[in-house]
Amino acid sequence: MAACVRDREFTSLLSVEFLTQLGLHKRRYVMGIDTFLSGNRSVLLAYDQGLEHGPTDLNQVNYDPAFIMKLADEGRFNGIIFQKGIAEKYYTGKVPLILKVNGKTQIPKGEPIARQNCSVNRAAELGAKAVGYTIYLGSEHESAMLEEFGRIQEEAHAQNLAAIAWIYPRGAAIKNDTAPEVVAYAARAGLEAGADAVKIKYTGDVETFRWAVKCAGKTKVFMSGGPKAASEIDFLKQVRGALDAGATGLAVGRNVWQSSDPMKMALTLRRLIIEDKSVEDAIKD
Ligand code: FBP
Asked: What is the pLDDT of residues 207-216, one digit of tens each?
């Protein structure tokens, strides 16, 4: 934590104007997302489902944010994703933090919207190296979220934080949120909106996901984990497919911390993603 805080204090001493004069201003943005990479790959642990879905996702072990924090550290994740309340009480500083700055419950029905619930300043105070924001593309309320993300992205970059967009096509206008053209649109929207990375759903095959990755351009693509898969091997094959299509990595929650052996799953994912092993080799080691 101390090192994270020291680094943040140092960079905040350097004004945007001063860095621009030195020609370093643009490069700072890239440094933000690089914090979460091992080489050109990354595995992020998501734990904001308590707000998004409620305790229905949780069991007697993973209900405890301290367990997740330890898992993120010992499982050598590249980043941990928390909402503000969990970060305030449980973040230890041992893994780079992505502070989710919007969110919603699944209680209201109708067109989805998630508004900002934490400032970028507060995220930085808590030690975050990136902010996360969900945009429900296709919702009647998408313009409110695009506008809010636009402002948050600028505030984040001004403080040397990366801006990561969860782009989830949702609402009555979206018939199939994993259709290739829908996922590619989500990826492109992330690039256009200024996201350093997007978190999108897998299309189901390498070729169509490759197009989505291309559409994202220089914005890095993370596959979104999704509900716990019936078969861990099938899940790992999907992740392998996303990597083969050019994805940077995976942002995953339930498929790790709902596993019967979360640490084993974490280390398997690390071998698959960071060490670039095949599914067969990743499960063997
Ligand atoms: P999972 O791997 O558990 O799906 O987590 C990824 C994530 O994006 C979380 O950050 C978020 O809480 C959840 O999925 C939202 O899921 P959905 O909107 O599909 O219900």
From this structure: 999 999 999 9
